[in-house]
Design goal:
227 residues; alpha+beta; Alpha-Beta Plaits; 2 domains; 5-stranded antiparallel sheet; 4-stranded antiparallel sheet; globular
């Protein structure tokens, strides 16, 4: 049964057609670079996921350092997951009933068993400082080129952030190629811009966990790690 997540404070959430479907899971560990394997496992269970334009996958994060997640450098390192770890899909509401087909399934993610249990819903946030840990843009090599490409895509959406901070690069391996991504934090957004960016995302490869934005309350943490 679908239910609204109880912890979503009324003053920090917005109504709309896009929400996060939050699944409780049972899984001991996953590789750090699990994007492709997890996405394929979800597509095997939900064939429409790959072609739903507004669907996205939040990569699983299992460790905290300061106020932000610090990804281990070795992509083959195992993330050891706790009972509180969640699988989160960003979806249009008309796909929620179909997404419930994941419930009770055990997914094979690169040889690791991931059982999907309860489902709750989390609305998008009203917070106007956002972060995406992995943004895939055509220009993702040098920071200056990435910044220009990000600014151009944001401008096309009518979004002009007060501050834009690029972070570390992350690689996502697929059988065809290795994607190079960067983290991106945006501050000084209007409420409307924040909601639009959470709904639309930025760049490519949403189903591999790229370009999805989540609220972030402290821009200082990412600035201190971006060099």
């Amino acid at each position: 049964m679908l239910r609204e997540k109880e912890s979503a404070a009324p003053d920090q959430a917005v109504a709309g057609d896009i929400v996060d479907a939050v699944f409780a899971i049972s899984c001991r560990s996953l590789p750090v670079d699990h994007a492709y394997a997890l996405s394929r496992a979800i597509q095997a269970a939900l064939p429409w996921f790959a072609t739903e334009a507004r669907a996205g996958l939040h990569l699983i994060r299992a460790a905290e350092s300061g106020s932000g997640w610090m990804r281990p450098e070795d992509p083959h390192t195992l993330l050891h997951l706790s009972r509180r770890t969640r699988l989160i899909l960003r979806l249009p509401k008309h796909r929620l009933d179909a997404a419930a087909a994941l419930l009770g399934r055990t997914l094979d993610v690169a040889g690791h068993a991931l059982r999907v249990d309860r489902l709750s819903l989390r609305p998008l946030s009203r917070i106007t400082t956002l972060i995406s840990h992995c943004v895939m843009l055509a220009a993702c090599g040098g920071e200056s080129d990435f910044r220009l490409a990000a600014a151009a895509e944001l401008d096309a959406l009518g979004i002009q952030p007060g501050e834009m901070l690029c972070g570390r690069m992350t690689s996502i391996a697929t059988p065809e190629r290795t994607l190079q991504t960067r983290s991106l934090m945006l501050a000084g957004l209007t409420l409307e811009q924040s909601v639009l960016l959470q709904q639309q995302g930025l760049g490519a490869e949403r189903t591999l966990g790229c370009g999805l934005f989540i609220p972030h309350k402290d821009i200082g943490d990412l600035r201190s790690r971006s060099d």
